[in-house]
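Practice problem 4.
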């Protein structure tokens, strides 16, 4: 029996793309978007912890084999396949990943079903910046960026890029200024994140909450889990989605 055996599986389509999604829990919705190589056991464990904290967790499977353990060979194979897939941006500057459109539709459907001030989104690594993209055009009230690493930080401009189109960046800034904070987590020496936290501080000011840990590891919530990081994410989700008067209404 795999860790996903207690999760309900379904397919979700936005009319152009279809991906499987795994769901567990009750309460306000939180979309957990996995990192490379996919929904590994540590990602499932994190999702279980979020569900246990009082949330309906939905984990889309965008690539990889759901529930399979991560390996170096498997990660390299997934990485190579992602490099030729059009849903994700790898090197382009000032562009929002096309898969964000599907994830926004998922967020809207989840919020329409569950209600509340909005939903939470946790993006990780290659999908870290997608939480911002969803915030720009979906009812997101609690966006979390765990070690955002796209586009690949080759050169100074890409290292600073937020994987957003100019229009989406403007929408994110307006929403943050209206009362929707953004939480970010990373290891201080993680070169994959580039200088994106500096960009976020400049663009969002005090509405960007940065949590940085010593060292140069990478996956703050999963493979290189920091309990303080997990606790900060859960506290953020509770404050934005569960507490009386939580967050600001999050229009699509």
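Answer key:
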């Amino acid at each position: 029996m795999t860790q996903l055996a207690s999760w309900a599986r379904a397919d979700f389509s936005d009319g152009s793309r279809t991906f499987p999604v795994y769901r567990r829990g009750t309460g306000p919705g939180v979309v957990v978007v996995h990192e490379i190589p996919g929904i590994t056991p540590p990602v499932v464990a994190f999702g279980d912890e979020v569900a246990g904290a009082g949330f309906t967790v939905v984990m889309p499977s965008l690539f990889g084999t759901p529930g399979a353990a991560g390996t170096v060979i498997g990660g390299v194979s997934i990485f190579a396949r992602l490099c030729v897939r059009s849903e994700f941006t790898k090197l382009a500057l000032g562009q929002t990943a096309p898969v964000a459109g599907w994830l926004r539709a998922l967020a809207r459907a989840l919020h329409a079903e569950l209600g509340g001030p909005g939903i939470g989104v946790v993006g990780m690594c290659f999908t870290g910046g997608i939480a911002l993209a969803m915030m720009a055009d979906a009812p997101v009230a609690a966006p979390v960026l765990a070690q955002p690493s796209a586009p690949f930080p080759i050169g100074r401009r890409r290292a600073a890029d937020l994987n957003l189109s100019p229009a989406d960046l403007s929408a994110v800034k307006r929403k943050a200024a209206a009362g929707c904070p953004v939480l970010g987590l990373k290891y201080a020496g993680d070169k994959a994140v580039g200088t994106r936290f500096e960009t976020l501080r400049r663009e969002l000011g005090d509405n960007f909450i940065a949590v940085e840990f010593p060292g140069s590891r990478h996956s703050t919530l999963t493979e290189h889990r920091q309990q303080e990081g997990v606790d900060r994410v859960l506290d953020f989700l509770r404050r934005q989605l569960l507490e009386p008067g939580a967050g600001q209404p999050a229009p699509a």
